[in-house]
Design brief:
The complex is a heterodimer of chains A (396) and B (220).
Chain A: H1 3-16, E1 24-28, E2 34-35, E3 41-42, E4 45-52, E5 62-66, E6 92-93, E7 98-99, E8 104-108, H2 140-153, E9 159-165, H3 167-178, E10 183-189, H4 197-212, H5 221-224, H6 229-243, H7 246-252, H8 272-287, H9 290-302, H10 305-308, H11 313-316, E11 323-329, H12 337-349, E12 353-359, H13 373-390
Parallel strand pairs in A: 5-8, 5-9, 6-7, 9-10, 10-11, 11-12
Antiparallel strand pairs in A: 1-4, 2-3, 4-8
Helix pairs in contact in A: 2-3, 4-6, 4-9, 6-8
Chain B: H1 2-15, H2 20-30, E1 37-41, H3 47-56, E2 59-64, H4 67-75, E3 80-82, H5 85-88, E4 97-103, H6 112-122, E5 123-131, H7 136-145, H8 169-178, E6 181-189, H9 202-208, E7 211-218
Classes of the chains: A alpha/beta (396), B alpha/beta (220).
Chain lengths: 396, 220
């Protein structure tokens, strides 16, 4: 790829932070600050979001989709930066399990991200420069608070459903804990009530890779006219391995060579799996901001529902009417089934209503984003059942 | 005498209603007060929870060991979780349910006593249905045939059977005494899937009942 093309792409991507394309933007002025767990207020700020489908007359068919670490609001429509289809088109759309002919689907970019909601890549109105490391550290709870403010702005009191996987699943759990009366049913997929030590460790490797890149300039790379491309690419490569599984990598690549039939006795990408990872790293850099990566991984690290509720997750769910559908995947070693089971046990202990299924797949953590017919059947069945109880008819 | 008994039992099998298992479920459902909170252990494909929800307006939950069963239940919109009753009941608080149901699963438990005690702790009532290994035809297969029985209700060969705790109606009655459970109601079904007379003696039920359903409560 030529330097010019790279520069153009970087500029286009950077533009998303303040003026996202193909998105709605809700603006919250000085009268509506976002109170953060860090003890400071973020103000003014904005949230970029997309909606699909139609809100019904009594405003009861809204479904909030929460995206994962590097996801965005473009769940079911093409991504303006990559030109690729939305990240959850398998799940969200007309006739899909989260049926946009039936539900009014909202997907917002989390704060701290870089696709139009306020984050470290956004312009700090006080300085006219990107926030960088001056941006306050945010938490999953802060993200959910911001989403609740968006719903207030859209005049939606209760959500029929909140759904998401991985970091999106953490937001789903936080939604039920923070706003139990506003969530009729919840689908936390491939997630946990807390980030494990191993997961924090992986995130730290990623952050250190970014910060070790001399082009990072303590987060001031935009002002310095540089970009920590190599550091962020390495972070993504390491993280990407955790999203797959040993079996999936072996099935896809084995020990196959890349465009050659024998080793070159060099450090070229001899193996297909190396070439694949390098591609994952470099294409990620085209679409994501390095500082946002630091902030969002940090938010996940801080997530611990039990710690926020007197040491027991069950306290977070006490007295809930929300119906849960928890799903895990057998080959997911980032958020293994045991983590989902903890969610289920906590819900049982607090008398919650929960369905829980573990789906057999070798696709690893990313399975929730992929073609998993069983996941679709379960989501569809769960939402159908909940819709009946909610009194939503087929016409929405 | 024995051959006549054998013939009668075989005829009973032929005449047996095709949907015999459903009769068992309906009988269980009949013991559940409308609108109550129910935990179904070994929910299978969710048929009982569906019946309870539709006919009794029950707030139902389920546990099922097999992944296929759980996923089928979840896809039906039922609140069923993948879990093992032998270990996972410990996570439920006391008195969480009005009824805890264990249908056709007691004989597959590693620790039936602990499971039954847990059921009576979690629920105010327990409903247990189970196949009767004391049934005449089973006795004949073992006693005269000399091999482990295999019937329509219990179709497995011994080396692949999930049933690891063979028990008769009398045996389960004795277990109820051991765990200090009070027998509120007991029904035995014959091979036709019909309830045997309520006033029949236990030995009669134990010989002619293909399966039985007990409604239990905590004593004292």
């Amino acid at each position: 790829m030529g330097d010019v093309e790279t520069a153009v792409r970087s500029t286009l991507r950077a533009g998303e932070a303040d003026a996202p394309r193909n998105s709605e933007v809700a603006y919250f002025g000085p009268d509506k600050p976002l109170k953060l767990d860090a003890g400071v207020e973020l103000s003014p700020f904005q949230i970029a979001y997309k909606t699909y489908g139609t809100l019904n007359a009594d405003r009861s068919n809204a479904v909030l989709i929460c995206h994962a670490l590097t996801g965005d609001q473009h769940a079911a429509s093409p991504n303006p930066v990559t030109g690729k289809p939305g990240w959850w088109v398998t799940m969200v759309g007309p006739g899909k399990p989260i049926d946009t002919e039936r539900y009014f689907v909202i997907c917002s970019n989390v704060i701290g991200s870089c696709m139009g909601s306020t984050g470290p890549a956004s312009t700090n109105p006080k300085t006219g420069e990107p926030w960088g490391l001056d941006f306050p550290v945010i938490t999953i709870r802060d993200m959910v608070r911001a989403q609740a403010m968006l719903l207030d702005a859209l005049n939606i009191e209760t959500l029929f459903a909140v759904a998401g996987g991985s970091m999106g699943g953490m937001q789903v759990l936080q939604w039920a804990a923070s706003f139990p009366k506003r969530v009729f049913c919840a689908l936390p997929l491939a997630c946990a009530t807390r980030h494990s030590a191993q997961n924090i460790a992986f995130h730290e490797v990623g952050r250190q890779a970014v910060m070790a890149d001399p082009e990072w300039h303590h987060g001031r790379y935009v002002v310095e006219g540089t970009e920590p491309r190599r550091g962020l690419a390495v972070a993504r490569m390491a993280a990407h391995i955790t999203y797959l599984s040993d079996a999936a990598l072996h099935r896809k690549f084995g020990r196959k060579f890349q465009d050659r039939d024998k080793p070159t006795f060099s450090f070229d990408a001899d193996f297909e799996v190396e070439s694949y990872l390098r591609h994952q790293g470099s294409s990620f850099v085209e679409r994501f901001d390095a500082n946002s990566y630091l902030y969002l991984t940090r938010a996940m690290d801080y997530f611990d529902l039990a710690a926020d509720h007197g040491g027991a997750v069950a306290n977070a769910f006490r007295g809930l009417d929300t119906r849960f559908c928890v799903v895990s995947f057998t080959s997911d070693w980032l958020f293994p089934t045991s983590e989902s089971r903890n969610i289920v046990h906590a819900l049982n202990a607090s008398g919650g209503r929960v369905s829980f299924a573990e789906i057999v797949t070798d696709k690893g953590h990313d399975a929730f984003l992929l073609d998993e017919p069983e996941l679709f059947a379960i989501t569809r069945g769960f939402l159908d059942g909940a819709a009946k109880m909610r009194g939503l008819n087929n016409g929405g | 005498m024995l051959s006549r008994l054998k013939r009668d039992l075989t005829m009973a099998d032929t005449a047996r209603v095709a949907d015999g298992a459903r009769i068992d479920l309906l009988l269980v459902a009949d013991m559940i007060a409308p609108g109550s909170r129910v935990l179904d252990i070994g929910a299978g494909d969710g048929e009982l929870l569906r019946i309870l929800g539709e006919q009794r307006g029950v707030d139902g939950r389920g546990i099922e060991l097999s992944r296929e069963g759980v996923n089928e239940c979840a896809a039906k919109g039922l609140a069923v979780i993948q879990g093992d009753a032998d270990t996972d009941l410990d996570h439920y608080p006391d008195d969480a349910f009005d009824y805890v149901i264990l249908s056709q699963t007691l004989q597959a438990m590693r620790r039936p006593r602990v499971v039954l005690e847990n059921m009576l702790r979690i629920g105010r009532n327990a409903v247990v249905s189970f196949p009767n290994f004391g049934h005449g035809r089973i006795r004949l297969q073992l006693g005269l045939g000399g091999h482990m029985p295999s019937t329509d209700n219990l179709p497995y060969a011994w080396w692949e059977s999930p049933n690891i705790r063979f028990c008769t109606i009398k045996d389960v009655r004795d277990l109820c005494d051991v765990v200090n459970a009070k027998m509120e109601r007991a029904v035995a079904l014959n091979a036709y899937g019909k309830p045997l007379g309520f006033n029949a003696p236990w030995w009669f039920w134990n010989l002619f009942g293909e399966q039985a359903v007990f409604l239990l409560s905590r004593r004292g």
